[in-house]
Structure formats: structure tokens, C-alpha cells
Amino acid sequence: MNILKRALPYLGAAVVAFLVAGIFIALMGYDPIKAYATIFGTSFKTPYGFIQTILKWIPLTLQALAFTIPFATGKYNIGGEGQMIAGAIGATAAGILLADLPIYFLLPLEILAGIIAGALWGLVPAYLLFQFKINEILTTVLFNFIAFNLIDYVATGPWSDPTAGHPTTIAVGEGGFLPNILTSQPLNAGVLIALAVAVGVYIYTNRTVSGYELVATGANPKASRAHGINTRVQFLLALVLGAAVAGLSGAIEVAGTHHRLIEGLQSNFLLLGLIIGLIAAGNNMAVPFVAFFIAILEVGARAMQRTMQIPVEMVFIVEALLLIFILLSNVVRRRKA
Amino acid sequence: MGNQHVIEMKGINKQFGSITALKNVDFFLPTGEICGLLGGNGAGKTTLMNILYGLYRQDAGQVYMDGKLINIQSPKDSLAHGIGMVHQHFLQIVNYSVIENIVLGADVKHPFTSNLAPEKQKINELCTRFGLELDPEATIGSLPVGTRQKVEILKALFRGIKVLILDEPTTSLTPQEVDSLFQSLKVMVKEGLSIVFITHKLREVLSVCNSISVLREGRNVISLDRKSAAEEELVKAMVGEKLDVKKSIIFSKGKYQTVNPKYRDAPIFNTSNLSYINSDKVKVLKDISIDLYMNEVLGIAGVAGNGQHELVEVIMNIQQPTSGHIRFSGEEFTGKPTRLIWENGLVYIPEDRLDDGFLPKASVAHNLILGFHNTSAYSRKGFLNWKSVFSKSRQMIEEYNIKTAGPDEMGSNLSGGNIQRVMIARVFSQNSRMLVAHNPTRGLDIPSTDFVYQKILEKKKEGMSTLLITEDLDELMLICDRIAILYKGEIVGVLAKKEFEKYRIGRLMSGFRDVDSKTKREG
Q1: Percent of residues, chain B, with pLDDT higher than 70
Q2: How many CB atoms are located within 10 Å of the residue B138 CB?
Q3: Among A300, B130, B285, B357, which one is most buried in terms of CB atoms within 10 A?
């Protein structure tokens, strides 16, 4: 009852968003019903479609959490893709340098290197905020640009694979591949890691003292300080935690999907992560579900482009409309209250 | 009726969301009189007068002036009808002079030059006529609160008003300033003005008003003439049946059961030469040395803004002192992290609940354990024990009469009075040894205020010591064992209970040290 009541405005916003987007699709001369059937059908018609959706879900969930964890304290991490790149580079470095190690050493080391590299990438902006009160939005965004150049350098540098035709490194050692968990489909164990992280974040914010302090800091930093919470440390911690999760998403892309560093592997996961985090209104428990929904849209959009020649950007429009209508419904509810 | 009443408000209704602020309220202001509008916090006094002044619109009801129906849409309309209001919080520009503040927004004779000579003359005339002494050229920021209030009254008089509304005008005044305000009010009435005096203090109404109207929970209770007003009747009208007047602390006139502080033992808490220089390089605390004993309630009196806020923040180590020491139960507490201060049993009710006392975006349970969340009562090995948090929360909600749907309701749904109750419940929930309470009864109605006093005194009996910081002299004189007076960041005197005398404290509050003040201890 309570959950339904809370979900209702979101469902309403989704319906309106699809209606409006449907009008655009119709105006462009396509059949909106067929388009939506493709979008929503692709993920469930074939096992392959479903697996593709899950594979999309992994980085989307992690990127969204990289945003929502600091967001709980009222801080904005817009550096998810830079941290993801740093994580991917860290994982690749471990995977190439230690390529001969067996899987039970190499894989954990590789993932850990990704997490640490992401965390370090987030630590610099976090420390600048902690020590000098420099706005974290600015610094996290700027660190994305540094990461773009860094990945260019690494992918074209000493480890580069000259045969690839695109800035790419050589593959990591085979012990650094995330194993598949299904025999019939290419679903790697990254999904288990992402699930564990989502559950872990939920437990952390809802069950632990440190998570309580995180929530309290976000609810009112001044009151938290007056009651003995070191809010500056909370800001730092939350930003670094978020960055670590983003770094993990980069490591999973390397270890699970590409098995090497590819320039551009960050895709548009940052933006989608922000959208997911905002639609979930910062609620960590809602993030995996919203991420799954967006993953369906993303996978469906590619299929729609292939079969109906509707530009894939149409899905961006749907996602943007979704966000706008959900934010609007929040405003309407607040007015009523 | 005719012109017997300058203002008649009839059948006024006002609803804020689901809360009924005023229900069918009538109010009559007799011409040329001071009418006291009496009631506890949340009774609807200010709302009613804000409607008369045009800040709110009534949902139903009419306003008549001199027998004629008038339609007030905004303060502009009410000023045009000659109705002015002085709010509790002054609307003044601190770096402008008195005269500039007064003429701001009014028509001036020379609008294109800053020649304010004619206005200055008018203001001087008004000052002499109404016995309001002040220098029109002084900068607002340099004036004490009492004088700034005179400026606010002059602002209204300058606009030629006939009806003046004063909202809790005595809140930040010393007793001397209150007397001088009352003098001026009497002169104004003689000159033909009619005045509405909003207050929750019975004594003030009895000393200055000609007629009295009492509101409670948004409804009329009684309206009567000063001559026929009996104090007991008014008390009953204000508080209703909810409070047992005989058992209350507020109406006990100080005659309640209590214990004496342990002055023979070493103080449980003391500060020595505590100083604090703020970020603007202003020394806001100067060598503060206070002792607090077991079972003692020590009051800090003073007009707001004399360093009270900084003093409590330095004690709780939210701001670090520039020099000096704080000791608590024999241990050095200077520079101790706030978290450890709480966990060692020194707890704090912040002055401004919305600013630094409450988490609106977290649940009631989150709020009730704030500050103690890391203690064994609520957590183990870094994990919160929500089961004990919830059972303790339910217990507190019950005991402190917090109106909420339950421990998991969002804090933002609570009303101001209930938020204050959450903060009160929080500090009393653990067996703390010392409480720093800054305006603990702000915004509470009379029964709730009385409840807070009872709790403080009950805990005092159990051995707790309290540092009570408030502007409310009545509150301090009622429940404190000693009162220290803070003026411009300095303790200018400490009085023991038998030395409590309103005017003496008032003199100290304005910075006149009295020569025979000794920090004598009782017992």
C-alpha cells in the first residue's frame, strides 16, 4: 500500500513521458506502438536480449551509486566517468603487469587495483573540499577531463595494441578475466559483484553507525556537527566511497567485458548514472531497480534503431522526459502538501 | 457601537494547510486604549494581527475601522488606513542611520537629493512628543535592542498611524527598557493612538493594558476590562484545562520542592578564562570563568547577541576557543571532540531547532538518537540496533507527548513545538550529567514549557547540572539557583538566588556592573 502510493507518481510520470515521446515518434513518421514494443520487448524476447540488459545494468547501477552515496550527504560527485576510467586503467595495469598470475590471485588484485585507482581519483577532489572548501562539483568534473587524456595516453602508449585500429591496450592476463556464470550465455560474474555492492551500500547506509552519520550529515550538516558528527570527514568519506564504486565499474568493464583498456569504454554511463540517481531521488535501495529499467530502454533502443531505423537518440529524449516529469511530479506533490 | 472601537474584527477564520490557526475569532480594540492580546505560543495572536496588518488574508470574517468595513490586501492598505505594526524581528538596515531607516519607503520632501532636514525635524518632534529619546543620526548597528525598537515604533509613527500593533515587544528588553517602553505607550495613548499589545506574559498585560483579550488554540476565550480581570481567571483562560495550575512550576511563584546544589564539592563543570575570537577577528568571548555544581541550575542572562551562541558552541567544541580551559568532572575537556562530549554525558539543546537542532530529512527515530547513536544504548560494533532504537523511540514519543505517526515518520512533517519536544526528549533520554540548554522553551505553549521546567527540576534532583541560556528573565529567575549575566562577551556579574532582583539583573544586562555584586554561593 505504502510502496504503491509512493510509486504512483513515478508511474504517472513514466506514462506521460512515453506519451509525449510517442507523439515525437509519430511526428517523425514512425509507428510509436511498434517502437515501444521493440524497446520493451527486446530485453525479454530472447535470452540474449536479457543478458545484454543485465550487462548494461552492471555499470549503470554502479555509476548511479557512485553518485547517490555522496549525494546522501548533500555532495555531488559528477566525476563518475573519470573515476571509472581511473579504475579501468588501474585494473588494466594490474592485469598486464601481473599477467602470469593464476586467476585466484590476479582477478582479486585486478578488481582491487580498479577500486583503489577510482578511490584515489575521487580522493583528490574530496581532499580539496575537506581542506580548502573547494566546490566538489567543479573539481570532479575537471578530473574527468584529466582522465580522458590519461586513457588516451595509456591506450596509445607502451601497452598499446597496434593492430586494434583504435586506441586500445593489449589484453590482460587470462587470469584477469571475470569468469562466466552461465555456460550458454556470455554473462560474467560482474553481475554478482554489482549485486553485492548494491546490497552492501544499502546495509551500510541503513544499518551501520557510520551510515547513520552519512544520512544525518545529508539531512542537516549543522545539526549533525552540533551533535558530535564530524561532517567534513563524512563528506570526504562519502565522495571517496562513491569514487571507489565508480572505479569498480571500470574494473568490471575491463575484467568482464573488454579484457583490455579501450578508449571510450566509459560510454555515457555517467549521464545515465546521474539520471538514475536523480530518478531514484538518492534512494540507494531504488537505484538497482531504476537502473534495470534504464538498461531495458538502452538495449531496446539499439534494437529499435536496427529494426526500425529510429535514431537511438530517441531514447535519450524519453529518458530526459522521464526525469523532467518525475521532478515535476515532486514539485506538484510538495505544493499539495 | 459607533466609534467606541477603532478596530473590530469579526468572525475571523484562517487555515494553514490542515492546521486551523484561527476559528471564528472576534477582536475589538477600544479607541484610545492599550489592549493586551494574551495567549501562549501557537494561540494565534500573531496570525490575527498579521491579518489586520495585511500580511495574511483571512479565509472568512470582516474587519471594521471606526464602524466602516475595510478591505486590507497588503501592509500598504493597512498603512493607508493608519494601522502600523512592529514585529518581533526588526526589519532594519543595520548600516543605515536611524533617520534613513525611518524614511525608507516613505514619501520624502526632496526625493532627488539626500536632504532629509524636514524629515529629521519631524522625527525630533515625534521623539519629544512621545518621550522616545534617540539620536536620529546614529547608525542602527551601533544601537542596543531597546533603542532599535524605538526606531521601529518611530517608523510607524512617522507614517501617521492611528493604530499600533506591537508583537511581543518586550522579548529582548531589559526590565528598565520595558519600563521606558510602557511609559512611551501610555503617552501615545494619551495623544490619541490605540495600541494592540501582543504578549504571552500575564504580568505585562496587567501592568500596562486597559483591556485584555485572551486567545487559546486559535479561539477566543475571554475579553475583559483590566479592572475586572482577576489573575487566576486569566491564567485559566490562557492554559485551559490541560495544565494543573496548582502543580505547575510556572504559576508556583518559585515555591516548588527542590534540592540545593552541592556547593561544598568541587564544581562538576568549569571554564577558566575562556576567550573566543571569531572569523571576523572580533573577540566575542572575553575571559569567561564560570563554575557549575552538582544539582545546580545556572542561568546565563543577557540580551541576545552578547556571546551566548558562541559560548555554548565553544563549550560543545563546535567552535574551538582561542584561549582558556574547560573542565568537566575533573577532566580536561578543552578541544575534546563534540562526539566524546556527548558520550561523556554533557548534552546540548541548540538555540535554533531548524538551524542546528533537527534533521528534517531523516526519520523521527533518527532524530531521537542523534548524538547518542554511537553509544551502547543504540549500537554495537558499528552497527545500529534498530530494534532498541525503535522501542526507545516509541517510549520517548509516548512520554514526551510528541505528535507523530511513529518513529519512522519523516522529521519534516513535525510542527515546531513537536520538533522542540524531540530535542527535549533526546537530551533527557540518557542519564546525562550536564545539560547545556539554549532557549529550551522557545515556541512551546504554556503546558509544554511547564513540562520542560518539571523535567529540568526532576533531573536536577537526580544530580544533573544545567546551564540555562535564555533571554527570558522570568524563566531564569524561576528555575535557576544562580544567574550569571553576559554582556558583550563578558560575565559582568553572578547573582545567587536571594539576590535575584529584576532591575539589578537588568542593569547588569545593559553593562552597568554593580559594585556590591559578589559571586557568593548559597548553602
Answers
A1: 98
A2: 14
A3: B285
Per-residue buried b or exposed e for B341-356, using 16+ beta carbons within 10 Å of the residue's own CB? bbbbbbbbbbbebeeb
For residue B374, the chain A residues in CB contact (below 8 A) are 209, 228
Provide the 3-class DSSP secondary structure of residue A68.
helix
pLDDT digits (tens, 9 = 90+) for B106-144: 877 787 877 888 889 999 999 888 888 888 889 998 888
Inter-chain residue contact B383 with A213, CB threshold 8 Å: no
CB contact under 8 A, A213 and B373: yes
DSSP assignment letter at A229: -
Non-local (6+) Cβ contacts of B469 within 8 A are B299, B300, B308, B311, B312, B351, B436, B437, B438, B439
Partner-chain contact A337 B358, CB within 8 Å: no
- Which residue among B318, B350, B382 places its CB closest to the CB of A208? B382
Q: Nearest-5° angle of CA A13, CA A16, CA A18?
A: 110
Chain B residue numbers touching A223 (CB-CB < 8 A): 350, 355-359, 370
Pairing of strands B297-301, B346-349: unpaired
Calculate what percentage of chain B has a pLDDT beyond 90.
58
Chain B contacts of A209, Cβ < 8 Å? 373-374, 379, 382-384
**Eight-class DSSP state of B250:** G
Q: What percent of chain A has pLDDT over 90?
A: 70
> Which residues, numbered 86 to 145 in chain B, qualify as contacts with chain A under a Cβ-Cβ cut-off of 8 Å?
none
Whole-number pLDDT of residue B240? 79
Q: Which runs of E-coded beta strand occur in A187-311?
A: none
pLDDT tens per residue, range B147-185: 888 899 999 999 989 999 999 888 888 888 899 899 999
Its sign, for the CA torsion A278, A283, A289, A291, is positive
> What does the block give as the cell for A127?
581532499
Task: List pLDDT tens digits, range B54-82.
Answer: 999 999 999 999 999 999 999 999 999 99
Candidate from B318, B341, B386 with C-beta closest to A225? B318
Residue-level pLDDT at B522: 39
B355–chain A Cβ distance below 8 A for any pair = yes
Amino acid at residue number A172: V
Is the ipTM of this structure higher than 0.90? no
- Per-domain residue ranges for chain A? 48-336
Q: List A residues 208-227 in contact with B (Cβ-Cβ < 8 A).
A: 208-210, 212-213, 215-216, 218-220, 222-227
Tell me the three cell numbers of residue B254: 518559585
Among residues A334, A335, A330, which one has the least CA distance to residue A12? A330
Does B371 contact A at CB distance below 8 Å?
yes
Radius of gyration of chain A (CA): 21
Q: Would an 8 Å CB–CB cutoff place B360 in contact with chain A?
A: yes
Q: Which of A33, A16, A172, A195 is nearest to A97 (CA)?
A: A172
* Element of type H or E holding B347: strand B346-349
